[in-house]
Amino acid sequence: MEAAIRVGHTILKNGGTSLDAVEKTITVLEDSPLFNAGKGAVFTNAETNELDASIMNGKDLNAGASAGTKTVKNPISLARKIMENSPHVMMAGEGAESYAKEQGLELVSPEYFYVESRMQSLKRVKEKEAQKESDNASAFYDATIKDSKFGTVGCVALDKNGNLAAGTSTGGMTNKRYGRVGDVPIIGAGNYANNATCAVSRYGMGRVFYSCNSSP
Fold this sequence. Notes:
Elements: H1 2-13, H2 18-30, E1 51-57, E2 63-69, H3 75-85, E3 90-92, H4 93-102, H5 116-131, H6 136-147, E4 153-158, E5 164-170, E6 191-193, E7 199-204, E8 209-214
Parallel strand pairs: 2-3
Antiparallel strand pairs: 1-2, 1-5, 4-5, 6-7, 7-8
């Protein structure tokens, strides 16, 4: 956390933009196996990692997001490329990965995201799910929410020009199925930035609000 904060602080101290501070700070967190984003992303039911991210510029309300990527090393950087260089707000799956390649972003093999503690977490969730006597939907929700709802990363920044930015990155829910996409890549849910009001990065379960990661 300290390393990430120092990266963002240095950018802002040297006159950098809030967007740069947000992206680079989150990149540090994505590169760490300690958080549910990037390298430390949780596993799906199929034992894959599917990553979501979003970023928003408070100056002009422009935003970008990526969802369900499996080979993009830093999804927050892809979200920014989508925001700045494409006519779209969100890209998902193979299309998002193709765009990342076109934009020169670093791609990695799916094995890069493997973290043993995350695999063990998936196994525990599956065991709890199997023990449930209630219906499958309830078992899935209860086991997942109690085991692995924490770890999504987010950042907001205010630069010397008064411009706000917010970004959020996640691996989603442990044991998620069916190409599930949560709230993180949804602008206005995963994050929001507006120079006239505020900047917020938040996470939840896609349909339940829990807390804000941070605010200016």
